[in-house]
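A common beginner's mistake is to predict each chain separately and then try to dock the pieces by hand. The better habit, illustrated here, is to supply every component at once so that their relative placement is modeled jointly.
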Amino acid sequence: MTARRPTVLWGMIAEHAAAAGRRVMIDDVCAVAVSSAQASGAWVVAASSRGPDFVMCVTDQVSEQLAELQQMLGEGPCHDALAAAAPVLAADLRDQESSRRWPAFAPEARRTGTTAIFAFPLVIGAIQAGVISLYRNSAGPLSSLQLRDCLLLADTATVLLLDSLDGGAAPTASGDGTRPSGQSPDLAVHRVEIDQATGMLSVQLRVTAGEAFARLRAYAYAEDRRLADVAGDIVARRLRLEPDAPDIGP
Amino acid sequence: MDSELLTDTFVDLADTMVADFDIIDFLHMLTDRSVALLSAAAAGVVLADPRGELRVAAASSEAAGLIELFQIQNDEGPCLECFRSGHAVTAPDLAGPEQQWPRFADAATEAGFRTVEALPMRLRDQVIGALNLFRATPGPFEPEGLRVGQALADVATIGLLQERNLRHSETIAEQLQAALNSRVVIEQAKGKLAERSATDMDTAFRMLRDHARNTNRRLTDVARDFVDNPSTDFPSPPLRSPRGGRPGPASG
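With all components supplied together, the output reads:
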């Protein structure tokens, strides 16, 4: 049952995109996260080498304020989530812990009416794509099911952001979001072979780990094979990928 | 049981936890010591990802079959059963006629294992993972061995919760995710190093670990710098240089 939850969530994301009459975007992931976690709003910030610093999408005005506040103050749950490569679950911004942790941000955030913030890093190992955050106007933790959904949605958001590194050629960022076989995209992320293959590909293709991961996905998509299977072939050294001839510039 | 080895193991594990340590490095040490102490063929620590999956945090060897065994366990197997029930679960003869988990039993025997014992990593009423012990011969582990095994599983839990010197009152979910991501960083670094040095994953792991120790840095930090930085130099394969080479400028 749990194993298929990613597919259910992907269905909700695709539906949201279809209702808006366009292809799947990171905004759809935010919208599903808000409804799934019963949050008041959500936002995604892309990471640069300096930290979380490019706002990709916001679901409402308060989200936008919260994103901008953290950028301005240089502190907050988004920064910590990226630095620790772990979620930051601040269930009550009025508590001592939050005030101590974010002396400048916490009071400013409370002024917007925000009481809780949950920030999830969009990371795969050393690859840092950004952060997805949710806020609520009421205090209290996420339930374990909401936490699970948020982590799975963060995986999807990570994949969407990284696919765009590959010039939009990769699966979920294009078309109706289905694989050539007509199935929902392979969102597998957490497999040892995928991690090892990503590292190997970064050498074979002379690219960053993030780009290597995107290329791995694009290849699996083009070949209509499971990501983990392609990764297994690379790790077993049955398959090598060559650097692209027409390189897409930065 | 070798009581001197037992003492050494717990002294070493406790020593490691005093300083700022790396949880994956620690769990690897724990699986290695479990193998030596309990005459096992292999050992692995599996953590429960709140996404609803069991994920390997450390294993005593890279044997592909071992990793696969843990993956199968997301559907069936003693480890999953242990995680669900919170109790130790034994499969004393995986080649026997009646198997509770046939798919798991087939894969385990193919990988050369006949016995497996899964010991829960418990925190109050929550099971956060399991220590798995594999043996190449049939027959259950001795009761004394299992008591030691459970103590090692408990030490793994403590290590996991202690690692991030708790500047903030982090939840278990936050810490589990950080630990699981560390493991991914290390796998990516292993892949990169294995490709660059034309070596296997086990050797790549040892190179990373030796380099971390020689330079007094955390394994995950060494691995992250290596993955992040395209120009990082790395001490070349089998010999450990006394100082180890310094990796290029750290990138953060």
